[in-house]
Amino acid sequence: MRMRLMLLGGGNSLGQALIHQGAEEDIGFLAPRPPEQGWDAASLTQLLDDTRPDAVINLAYYFDWFQAEEVSDVRLAAQERGVERLAELCQHHGIILLQPSSYRVFDGSRATAYSEKDESAPLSERGQAIWRMEQSVRAACPKHVLLRFGWLLDDSREGSVGRFLSRAEQADEICLADDRRGNPTPVDDAARVLLAVIKQLDCQAPLWGTYHYGGHEATTPLALGQALLSEARNLHPLKVQDITPQAHAARPDAADEPQNAVLACKKILHTFGIKPRAWRAALPTLLDRYYRHG
To answer: Which burial class, exposed, middle or buried, applies to 220 when counting CB atoms under 10 A from its CB (0-12, 13-18, 19+)?
Structure first.
């Protein structure tokens, strides 16, 4: 690896997966510890002025954007300013910016999978903040890769999988939508994709732009939950016996979550040669890590 790589957010689940996979290929990252209040415009300015890496992978806001149940408007606004400043700094110093994004930029009204050419229309405050972040990156830093992920699954206690498993240990009944669809994407798979993109950018391939990635086989929250329960029962006692189907419109997050969050992944395949992997195959490792760390 010729490029000096900086990773913001190396302590979260996706950052840890990226560091681990990079180490297996002798690819290292500068992974500075964030300031106590988190990365903001001022601390990012100081950091990049001091270090001048060749590329930045920005996972600084990973948990809030991909795992948190709720994020305050104030927090999102500060993160938007941070990304905008980071993009300006990357352009000023000639640094490549690799910025993850999300299916949340779409409203879910489309009947088929979303491609990179489809118009964004976010439903939630979080989706709107992520969409504005994308726009600021495009405007300020031409040498960027925006990578929109599907439903990211990690082993954190407070993440979406952790909240589900916690309910499964305590509740008699869990309801999940059977008419909402998306691409489950374990963080190990997301890290693999990020690393593959980084390696091609290291070959000075000017493959800038926006790309989609989600795990192979779109599914429903109901089917995903059933698969998680099936694997989790091999590792830990659960109280809940089964999952009750519920309509998307009846779910408490229906106003925020796209009913159709399926991403078309042809562009990333044709450009980088990255093939989607089956998310089901990654569940045993993900859950084993969850229960071991817990």
So the answer is: middle
Rounded Cα distance, 204 and 54, in Å:
11
Q: For residue 187, with 0-12 CB atoms within 10 Å meaning exposed, 13-18 middle and 19 or more buried, which class applies?
A: buried
Three-state secondary structure string covering the chain: CCCCEEEECCCCHHHHHHHHHHHHCCCCCECCCCCCCCCCHHHHHHHHHHHCCCEEEECCCHHHHHCCCCCCHHHHHHHHHHHHHHHHHHHHHCCEEEEEEEHHHCCCCCCCCECCCCCCCCCCHHHHHHHHHHHHHHHHCCCEEEEEECEEECCCCCCHHHHHHHHHHHCCCEEEECCCEECEEEHHHHHHHHHHHHHHHHCCCCCCEEEEECCECCECHHHHHHHHHHHHCCCCCCCCCCEEEECHHHCCCCCCCCCEECECCHHHHHHHCCCCCECHHHHHHHHHHHHHHC
Cα 214 from Cα 210, distance rounded (Å): 14
* Band of pLDDT at residue 191, cut at 50, 70 and 90: very high
pLDDT tens-digit readout, 209-218: 999 999 999 9
Asked if the model's pLDDT at residue 95 lies above 90, the reply is: yes
Count Cβ atoms below 10 Å from residue 293 Cβ, excluding itself: 9
pTM of the model: 0.95
